[in-house]
Write a structure and sequence with these properties.
Blueprint: E1 15-22, H1 27-40, E2 46-48, E3 59-67, E4 71-81, E5 94-102, H2 114-117, E6 139-141, H3 146-158, E7 163-168, H4 187-190, E8 193-198, H5 203-210, E9 222-224, E10 240-241, H6 252-263, H7 272-281, H8 288-335, H9 338-348, H10 352-369, H11 375-378, E11 385-386, E12 392-393
Helix pairs in contact: 3-5
């Protein structure tokens, strides 16, 4: 049996997955207020907070809206409290998982599903990567400490939830160069990108870590990290940019590499399969048409189940009738003496063991009768004369005192 992990299923082209961390106060209230405001403004059709919360204190929110082209999008946000992050709702941090699915393949130009649940702004509190806590869509300088640098880059090189871009500063940038180069990406993609910045003197240290994953950051350039497992078709040369000018101009080559990477067929992130299954199977924000369709499906399911139960009942009834018939035949035979005679015959012949013992005894007697006699049995007894036919005659002639009838006595000559 192979010990290699089974390959993850591919992310459907209609799906938009994202994961992050909320560090601000009262995450649940923030989501509720934002959804109500968007519904009042006509941005979303409707939203719902299912009553049955998930395991471990999870909170679930559902929303539905239209994107350009009259394409319906359904999205489900799950909030899971982080242990040890504070007591009470006001100080509680949450990990959030957002899974959205459209009726058509996802277009990165569509509005970000994260913007449908979370308010925008630098102080919104939700734009943090789930594991490292780094800002999504913003610049994050890589740490000077080597241990922290290895921890962050190793996670970034393996992560499949977010897209990680490492940019090397050939020289210390001014205020315009310190702005995120991914700010020009579409909103739906920018909310899933982490931009790492390496200081000029950290070039060797960064590549020393990235070498373990088969990628390198060009000096003064950038590289899009592959994640683990890397998507099919990933070639580090295709997703490396030799030069990125941090002068406030739009880095078209780097943006093109990020967009090409986002378009690759990528495997579902770890844990995303559960979120996608919950979106498809536990969805409760139904339209009237969907409720009618679900009711018809339930009627069909119950009808099939009833038909199967009826068929099983008929089969059971038929089997029971045959069993009763066989029992009646058995009792009739027993009453007529047929079974009793068979029992007596078996009793008279003895047990099978006794029959086997008698058979072995007969076999033994037959073998002894066929056994040739010993030499001593064939030797004549003492004093016996051989007979004409080869046998032994009695000694002393005692046995021949009376001649046979009609014969003469050899002693008298008569």
């Amino acid at each position: 049996m192979s010990n290699s992990p089974s390959p993850r299923p591919a992310t459907p082209p209609t799906v938009w997955p994202a994961r992050g961390r909320h560090t601000g106060p009262a995450a649940e209230d923030v989501v509720r207020r934002h959804l109500k405001q968007l519904k009042a403004d006509g941005v979303i059709f409707d939203h719902l907070e299912p009553e049955d919360a998930g395991p471990g204190g999870e909170k679930v929110f559902e929303a539905r809206w239209l994107v350009p082209g009259e394409v319906t999008v359904r999205a489900r946000l799950t909030l899971s409290p982080l242990t040890g992050s504070g007591s009470g709702q006001a100080g509680q941090e949450y990990e959030w998982v957002l899974m959205a699915e459209a009726e058509q393949p996802w277009d990165p130009r569509w509005p970000s599903p994260a913007a449908m649940f979370w308010p925008q702004g630098p102080d919104a509190g939700w734009q943090y990567e789930a594991v490292t806590g780094l800002r999504l869509g913003e610049v994050t300088p890589l740490p000077e400490d080597d241990k922290d640098l290895r921890r962050i880059l190793r996670h970034a090189a393996r992560d499949t939830w977010a897209l990680h871009v490492v940019v090397h500063e050939a020289m210390t940038p001014d205020e315009r160069g310190r702005a995120a180069v991914v700010r020009a990406l579409p909103e739906g993609l920018r909310h899933r990108v982490v931009e790492h910045r390496a200081a000029p003197h950290r070039f060797r240290a960064v590549n020393w870590v990235l070498d373990d994953f088969g990628v390198r950051m060009p000096r003064g350039g950038a590289v899009v990290l592959p994640g683990s497992p890397a998507p099919p078709g990933y070639d580090v040369a295709d997703f490396s940019v030799r030069s990125v000018f941090l002068d406030g101009t739009e880095p078209a080559e780097l943006l093109g590499a990020v967009n090409r990477f986002a378009a690759l067929p990528r495997p579902l992130p770890d844990g995303a399969d559960r979120a996608l299954t919950a979106l498809r199977e536990d969805w409760q924000l139904l339209t009237f048409e969907e409720e009618l369709t679900r009711a018809r499906e339930l009627v069909t399911m119950y009808s099939e189940a009833l038909e199967a139960m009826t068929k099983s009942r008929d089969l059971y009834k038929e089997a029971a009738e045959r069993a009763h018939e066989a029992l009646a035949v058995y009792r009739e035979a027993e009453t007529g003496g047929v079974l009793l005679a068979g029992k007596q015959a078996r009793t008279a012949s003895g047990s099978p063991f006794q029959q086997l013992a008698r058979g072995l005894g007969r076999l033994k007697g037959t073998a002894l009768s066929l056994r040739p006699g010993s030499a001593q049995d064939r030797r004549p007894k003492a004093g016996a004369a051989p007979s004409d036919d080869g046998g032994a005659a009695p000694a002393g002639g005692d046995a021949g005192t009376s001649p046979p009838a009609g014969g003469s006595d050899p002693r008298t000559g008569d």
